[in-house]
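hey
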C-alpha cells in the first residue's frame, strides 16, 4: 500500500466579548511534490491587546509564515525554514513599531505552529498560545507558556513575536502515529477550560471541525472574556510506502543501454565516452536540435536491481537542479520526454584540478588563493541550501580554459531537507575518498559544513605542497584511537615558502576534531591571506621544526667548523 500524509483539520474563531478579534489562524495542505518536501503547515497567533495593533501583528505572523514557508528551498530542514521566516517576521514587526508614534507598545503577538512532514511533527512556539497532542487516551501539552507571574493574579508575557530584535523560539520534533490528534488554542480557550475538558471535547467530537467549534463555545460558556480560537488536526494516514512500491516508483525509467558514439538518446547524440567507473558512465553529447554540447551521466547496469543506488542517482539530479551558482556545474532541465534514467549537465571545456596540479607542481601562492576562493564560492552555494558535497577532491573540480572553477559530482551530496523524509529504502552512506574525507565520517558520525572545510583544507595543503597533511594515514584510519593518533605534518616542511601563519590556517582547517576547525569558509580564506596572531610567527617556531633540513645543514656546518678549529689547535 502506498499511503500518503492525509489529515483532517477543523478551525474556528470567535471575537467573544472583545471589540475586535485579534486572534488569527490558518493552515495549508499543499499538493505534491510540496506535500512530500515541505509538508502541511498549521499556525495560530494571538495579538497582544496592549500593543499598538495586535490584530495586525497576529495576521502578519500567520499569513507571512504560511505563504513564505512554501517559498523556502526544499533542501532546507523544516527547522531552518521556519526559523528564518519567523526571524524575518519578528524583525519586520519590531522595526515597524520603532518607527511608530507608539514605540513603547509595539506590534506583538504570540505564535505557535505545527508542521507535519513525512512521519514527523515539528512544533514552533513563542508566547502563550498552546499546542496539545492527544495520543491514545493521553493529552500532552507540547508547549510551555512564556508568562512571568508577579503575583497570584497578575502576570505578563515575557516572550512574543515583535517584542525584541532577538527572537527566542521553542522547537520540538516528534514522531507521528495515525490517529494522533493535535489541538492548537489561544489563551481565551485554555485559560477558561481545563485540559481534561479539552480532551473530553475532542474525544466526543470525532469531526475536527465540530470539535474546534465546541471548544470555542465551551470557553465562551465558561466565562471567557477574550478572543477564542481553536484548531483540531487529525492524522488520518502517514506516508508509509512498502519497499516494493518504492522500488516500482524508482524504476519507472529503465537504465539506458550501452552507449556508443553516434547513438541517439532522447535527442542527444553521443560523441564519446569521457569517464567510466563501476558506478556511472559519463559521455560527451550534442543536442540534435540546438547543437549544444552537453555532458550525460548514466547509471551503471551493475546496480540495476539496487534501489538504494537508484534513489541516490535520482537525488543527484534533484540536488543539481537546485544549485544555481557559476562555480558549480549546472544540471540542465530537459524539455523533451525522457525514456531512460540519466541526467544532463553543462559541458565544461577544460581539465580537472588534478590534471592542473600535475602540470603545476609548484604553483604561486597567489594562484592557489584564487583557486581556493572560487572553490569556496561553489561550496557556499551548497551550504546555503543545507547541502553538503561530501566528496570534494581535485578530481571533482573542473577548470575551464579561463581558469574558472566548476565543482562537479553530486553523488555523495547530503540534503538536509530530504533526510527528513522517511523512506523504506536504506539510503547510501558516504561515497567520498578517504584522503579528503573528514575523520568524523570515518567514525560513522554525521557531517557538517566543517567536513567540507576539511576537504577544502586538504586540497589547499596539497596545492601548496604536493603532499597530504596526514600522508596516507587516513587511508588506514579506523576507530577513535586511530583518529587521535593522526599527526599533522607542517606544510613548511615540504614548501619553505609557506609562512608559519599560513600553515596555522591549514592546520586548523584539517584538524581531526571538527569542533577545532573553522566554522565558516570566509574565516579560513581570511587566515590564508592575512596573518593571524594566534598562529605565531617564524621567530616563535624553532628552526628544527620550521625547517629541519636547514637546521641539520646548519648543525653539520657548525660541527664541521668546530672540527677544523680543533684540528688547527692540535697542529700548532
Amino acid at each position: 500500500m502506498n499511503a500518503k500524509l492525509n489529515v483532517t483539520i477543523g478551525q474556528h474563531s470567535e471575537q467573544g466579548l472583545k471589540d475586535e478579534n485579534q486572534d488569527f489562524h490558518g493552515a495549508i495542505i499543499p499538493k505534491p511534490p510540496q506535500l512530500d518536501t515541505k509538508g502541511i503547515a498549521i499556525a495560530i497567533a494571538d495579538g497582544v491587546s496592549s500593543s499598538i495593533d495586535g490584530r495586525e501583528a497576529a495576521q502578519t505572523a500567520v499569513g507571512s509564515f504560511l505563504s513564505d514557508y512554501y517559498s523556502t528551498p526544499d533542501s532546507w530542514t523544516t527547522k531552518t525554514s521556519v526559523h528564518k521566516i519567523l526571524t524575518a517576521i519578528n524583525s519586520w514587526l519590531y522595526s515597524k513599531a520603532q518607527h511608530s508614534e507608539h514605540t513603547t507598545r509595539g506590534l506583538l503577538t504570540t505564535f505557535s505552529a505545527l508542521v507535519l512532514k513525512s512521519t514527523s511533527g515539528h512544533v514552533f512556539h513563542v508566547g502563550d498560545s498552546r499546542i496539545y497532542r492527544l495520543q491514545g487516551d493521553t493529552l500532552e501539552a507540547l508547549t510551555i507558556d512564556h508568562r512571568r507571574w508577579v503575583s497570584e493574579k497578575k502576570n505578563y508575557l515575557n516572550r512574543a513575536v515583535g517584542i525584541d530584535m532577538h527572537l527566542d523560539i521553542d522547537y520540538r520534533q516528534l514522531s507521528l502515529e495515525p490517529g494522533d490528534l493535535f489541538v492548537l488554542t489561544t489563551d481565551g480557550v485554555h485559560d477558561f477550560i481545563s485540559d481534561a475538558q479539552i480532551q473530553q471535547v475532542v474525544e466526543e467530537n470525532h469531526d475536527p471541525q465540530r470539535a474546534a467549534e465546541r471548544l470555542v463555545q465551551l470557553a465562551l460558556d465558561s466565562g471567557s472574556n477574550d478572543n477564542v480560537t481553536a484548531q483540531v488536526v487529525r492524522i488520518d494516514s502517514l506516508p508509509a510506502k512498502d519497499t516494493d512500491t518504492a522500488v516500482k516508483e524508482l524504476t519507472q525509467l529503465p537504465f539506458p543501454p550501452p552507449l556508443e558514439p553516434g547513438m541517439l538518446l532522447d535527442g542527444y547524440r553521443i560523441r564519446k565516452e569521457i569517464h567510466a567507473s563501476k558506478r556511472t558512465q559519463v559521455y560527451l553529447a550534442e543536442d540534435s536540435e540546438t547543437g549544444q554540447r552537453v555532458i550525460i551521466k548514466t547509471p551503471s547496469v551493475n546496480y540495476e536491481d539496487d534501489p538504494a543506488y537508484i534513489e541516490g542517482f535520482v537525488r543527484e539530479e534533484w540536488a543539481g537542479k537546485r544549485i544555481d551558482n557559476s562555480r558549480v556545474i549546472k544540471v540542465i532541465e530537459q524539455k523533451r520526454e525522457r525514456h531512460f534514467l540519466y541526467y544532463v549537465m553543462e559541458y565544461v571545456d577544460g581539465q580537472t584540478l588534478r590534471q592542473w596540479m600535475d602540470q603545476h607542481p609548484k604553483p604561486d601562492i597567489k594562484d592557489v588563493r584564487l583557486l581556493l576562493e572560487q572553490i569556496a564560492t561553489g561550496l557556499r552555494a551548497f551550504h546555503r541550501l543545507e547541502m553538503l558535497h561530501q566528496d570534494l577532491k581535485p578530481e571533482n573540480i573542473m577548470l575551464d580554459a579561463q581558469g574558472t572553477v566548476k565543482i562537479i559530482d553530486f553523488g555523495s551530496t547530503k540534503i538536509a531537507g530530504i533526510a527528513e523524509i522517511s523512506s523504506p529504502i536504506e539510503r547510501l552512506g558516504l561515497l567520498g575518498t578517504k584522503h579528503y574525507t573528514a575523520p568524523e565520517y570515518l567514525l560513522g558520525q554525521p557531517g557538517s559544513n566543517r567536513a567540507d572545510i576539511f576537504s577544502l583544507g586538504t586540497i589547499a595543503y596539497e596545492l601548496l605542497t604536493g603532499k597530504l597533511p596526514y600522508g596516507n594515514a587516513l587511508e588506514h584510519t579506523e576507530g577513535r584511537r586511530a583518529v587521535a593518533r593522526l599527526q599533522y605534518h607542517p606544510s613548511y616542511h615540504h614548501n619553505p615558502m609557506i609562512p608559519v601563519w599560513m600553515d596555522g590556517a591549514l592546520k586548523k582547517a584539517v584538524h581531526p576534531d571538527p569542533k577545532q576547525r573553522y566554522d565558516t569558509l570566509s574565516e579560513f580564506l581570511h587566515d590564508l591571506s592575512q596573518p593571524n596572531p594566534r598562529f605565531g610567527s617564524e621567530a616563535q617556531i624553532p628552526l628544527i621544526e620550521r625547517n629541519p633540513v636547514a637546521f641539520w645543514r646548519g648543525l653539520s656546518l657548525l660541527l664541521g667548523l668546530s672540527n677544523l678549529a680543533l684540528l688547527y689547535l692540535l697542529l700548532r
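The two ends are 104 Å apart (CA to CA). The domain at 6-240 is CATH 3.60.40.10 (Phosphatase 2c; domain 1).
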